[in-house]
Amino acid sequence: MQIREICEYIESWAPLAWQESYDNSGLLVGDRSAEVKGVLISLDCTEEVVEEAIKKGCNLIISHHPIIFSGLKRITGANYVERTVIKAIQNNVCIYSCHTNLDHSPKGVSYQLAQKLGITGQVLKPMRDVLKALQYYVPVSHEKAVREALHTAGAGNIGEYSNCSFTQEGLGRFQPSTEANPHTGSAGILSEVNEVKVEMIFPTHLSGQILSALKAAHPYEEVAYSIHSLDNSWQDVGAGYVGTLEKPLSPEEFITFAKKRLGLKALKHTALPSRPISKVAVCGGAGSFLIKEAVKQGCDAYISADIKYHEFFDAENQCLIIDVGHYESEVMIIDAIHDYLSKKISTFAVLLKSETNTNPVFNA
Ligand SMILES: [Zn+2]
User: Fold this and answer.
1) Are 355 and 61 in contact (CB under 8 A)?
2) Considering the domain boundaries, does residue 71 fall inside one?
3) How far away, in angstroms, is 127 Cα from ligand 1 center?
C-alpha cells in the first residue's frame, strides 16, 4: 500500500476542499508513492512524535495540526518546526495533516467532542458553497446506466440517503451537422428522441469526477447538461456541533460532568446561570468564532477552547461559556482517525496512536 492510498482514505472522509483558506492540510512532507510501513496518529507533529515514529517503524505520521502552517522560507533547524521537518526528511518519514477539513467533516473533531459529552444533535454552523446541482438530458435507453455511473462517482447523496435523483420525461431534438458523429440520427435531419431530464446534487469538490463520469457513460457525442451553484448549506458539514444532553443538569453538575468526561483537572467558565443546562454546543479547538451562533441558537452552554478574556463577555450571560483547553477539546480525534483507518484497512499491520503527550500547556 502506498502513502497516497492512506491520504485518499482520509480525504474521502475529510476532503481537502473543506479546509479553511488559511489552513495547510494534506501531505506536507514525503513521497506519495512510498510504500507504507506503519502509520502513527497524533494531534500534533513534533520532533518527539517523529522520533516515536522512527522507533516504532512508522513512516507516515497523520497529525491533526499541520506542522508547516504558514510556509517555510528556509529549513536550517532554527526552530522546532524546521527541526521536525528535517528529522522527518532525513528518516524518510512522511507527514500528513487533516486539520480544518476534519473539523468540518461529518463525525469530525467537534462531533467527537460532543460524543464524549453524550450530546446528540447536528452541526452548529453548516457550510455553504459545498453543493452543486446537475441537470442533464439522456435518451430513455441509457437513463439507468448514466444515473448509476453518477451515483458511483459520488452524486445524489443527501444526509443518510444515497442514490437520490429526480427524472422527468420529454422529447429531445437535435440536428447533426455533416461533421458530427451522432449516436442516433443523420446529418442535416432533425431528430426527435424520447429523453429524460435528470437532476441530482453533488459535492462541489467532486465536480471533475462527476463531469467525467457523465461524459463517459452518456451515449451522445455532445452531452446536454447544466451545473448550478446552490445556496443550500450542507447540514452534515460545517463548524461545531449542537444538541441536547442525555438529561438536563444543574450548572454545577454540568461543570463536574464536563471535567469528568474530558479528564480535566480544571477549566475556565463564565458565571453560572440560574437555569439548568440541556442544550449544549461545542467546538473542538479555537472556537470563539461560534460563541454568537451558540447564543443565537439558544444554547445553555458552549464548550470550546482558546477563548480570550474579552470574548467571554460576548455571551452576555445568556449562555455558559466553558474553555476546556485546546488539546483537551481535540485529543479524542486520535481515536476517531484510528477507528476510521482500522475499518478501511483491516489488513494493515502497524496503525498506532501516538503515546507522546504533545500538549504544551500544563495546568498546575
Ligand atoms: Zn486545534
Assistant:
1) no
2) yes
3) 19
